[in-house]
# Entry
Amino acid sequence: MTETELSLLDQALLDQDLLLSQGKTIPLATVRAWMDSDTLQVQDRAFSLLAEHSERLEMPSPQEREEFSLRYLEHYFRTDPQGGFALGRYQAGYRLCAWFEQLWSGRPATAFTLERVRDLLARLSATGEEPMRDALVTAVFEHLFQDPAIAEFFGDWRRDPALSPVYSEALALAQLWDKDSDKGSDKEFLYTNEPDRI
# Structure
């Protein structure tokens, strides 16, 4: 990152913190600028603010939030950035899992978005790249598939040669959770340490 980029990043983060500390509503133009930023750290903060402080934002349309969230999460899985403020694939997976569960609880109004998230997960899972696949299985699918209805939502994957191994492994791991008497407390711990939800 160049000195100019760092300066712009620092200013954007200071602007966010200042507006939040003053109790002001963050204008829509500012939220959109953060969502459209090429700087990953600014996108991280935008994602977190949308999840944690939505009452303090002039909110973009649901379609804009959906596009941003899908693009943001896909980027993390494909690149696995490290260092600084950057999330790794596993943290991105926990965020995606939490967002998916939020969308799932909002059905039928969220059905189209759920299909888009499933399509994104299929594209990512089908790449065959083992580190990404492992993160998807253990940070996303094994938790989602603890709900049999969600597992069935992905049921077509059983017939897809590229996705069937991912589906089978995640389902087996999810069933192990069912046998674990502490299942609920582990899952609660997972989400209380990863509160960002969109």
User: Anything to note?
Assistant: The chain is about 70% helix and 0% strand. The two ends are 28 Å apart (CA to CA). The chain has two domains: 1-60, 62-78+87-198. Residues 3-21 form the longest helix (19 residues).
